[in-house]
Write a structure and sequence with these properties.
- There is one protein chain.
- About 40% of the residues lie in helices and about 15% in strands.
- It is built from 12 helices and 15 strands.
- The chain has a 7-stranded parallel sheet with strand order 3-2-1-4-5-7-12, sandwiched between helices. Strands 6-15 form a two-stranded antiparallel sheet.
- Helix 4 links the parallel strand 2 and strand 3.
């Protein structure tokens, strides 16, 4: 942690940290052949992930094209990506003609999908999470594909179990999780049919200063809102560490598709995290309900063996977040809904 500051004071500083490539990523992108495309780049993860790739290529002395694809409803996001050397393409991935027009790229990162509001528009949820992956898998059947999935495809497991492993059978609860499993199946199908090398990243949950489970809890402690304890335990990973692991997953793509759980090694207690934030913020948390004996937990031992353990600890994240929240810095105001137990997001 010697490379990291004691506090994060601005979004510019945060974005620099989230996109700072470790030496392993620089080495990988020096060795990897071909251009990169990030599909669904304008979400919470895409900008810093694409920027880390660009910075790693620059440090490696490799000249390659990096595209970011999105509908870009926010023109400022597009301008920021272009300012960092990411070429942008605007369009709708639900449009087959647009997908067929996308440039050839040897390395594809699939970040598109729908979670928020999934339950209120189930047909769009399935279209984004299953139909779009089918289109992309066909278009990029000759490429390496790293596709983001979710730990929500696993069932709730006993708190002391250590979390679901990649070899465990998915039991997707609710249509959001089912549609995400459909996403995986589309990429798996292409991998088997065409020999497409694929890595499927089952992520839960990425955290930075503006968004994530820890931010949800800190904001509630700060405002005095009650904290639901029914999902009493969870996993998280610093988004910068997640970005690095996601880029390194290019080196793990295979056929059949390779599944990799992506999160931190700790099982965190909702209650204990809230109490810790209470001390940092000088406010007593308000609790509602009680901890259930099961939770949505992932075991990411495979990722840690492949990529190393996350560099940023939950304790360090919490100190950063407490400072960020107490100073009234900008939040994305998008709840993770990590406390949901019935799959209805």
């Amino acid at each position: 942690m010697t490379d990291y500051p004691a506090a994060i004071d601005s979004e510019a500083q945060l974005d620099e940290l989230l996109s700072r490539p470790p030496r392993e990523v620089v080495a990988l992108l020096k060795a990897v052949q071909g251009d990169l495309v990030f599909l669904g780049v304008a979400g919470k993860i895409g900008p810093s992930l694409a920027r880390m790739a660009r910075r790693a290529c620059a440090e490696a002395g490799v000249d390659r094209r990096i595209w970011g694809v999105s509908r870009f409803s926010n023109s400022q996001e597009r301008a920021q990506l272009e300012a960092h050397g990411i070429e942008t393409l605007q369009g709708d991935l639900l449009d087959p003609a647009f997908v067929r027009s996308l440039p050839p790229a040897a390395n594809v990162f699939f970040l598109a999908g729908m979670k928020f509001g999934a339950e209120s528009n189930l047909s769009l949820t399935w279209a984004m999470n299953t139909y779009v992956p089918a289109l992309v898998a066909e278009q990029y059947r000759a490429s390496k594909i790293v596709a983001f999935s979710t730990g929500c495809v696993y069932p709730l497991v006993a708190v002391g179990s250590g979390g679901s492993r990649e070899e465990d059978k998915p039991e997707a609860t609710g249509e959001y999780a089912q549609s995400c499993l459909g996403r995986e199946r589309m990429f798996e199908h292409a991998s088997l049919r065409y020999g497409t090398p694929v890595s499927l990243l089952r992520l839960n949950y990425a955290v930075e200063m503006r968004y994530g489970v820890l931010v949800d809890i800190a904001a509630k402690v700060n405002s005095g809102a009650p904290i639901d304890l029914s999902m009493g335990y969870f996993n998280v990973i610093w988004q910068g560490d997640m970005n690095a692991a996601s880029l390194l997953a290019l080196g793990q793509c295979g056929s059949p598709a390779k599944v990799i759980n992506l999160t931190g090694p700790e099982t965190l207690s909702t209650r204990q995290v809230a109490l810790a934030f209470g001390k940092l913020l000088g406010k007593a948390p308000v609790f509602a309900g009680a901890e259930a004996p099961t939770a949505l937990l992932n075991n990411a031992s495979r990722a840690h063996a492949l990529f190393g353990k996350p560099r940023v600890t939950p304790e360090h994240m919490m100190r950063w977040i407490a400072g960020w929240v107490s100073h009234g810095n900008r939040l994305l105001n998008k709840q993770t809904h990590f406390e949901v137990r019935d799959g209805k997001y």
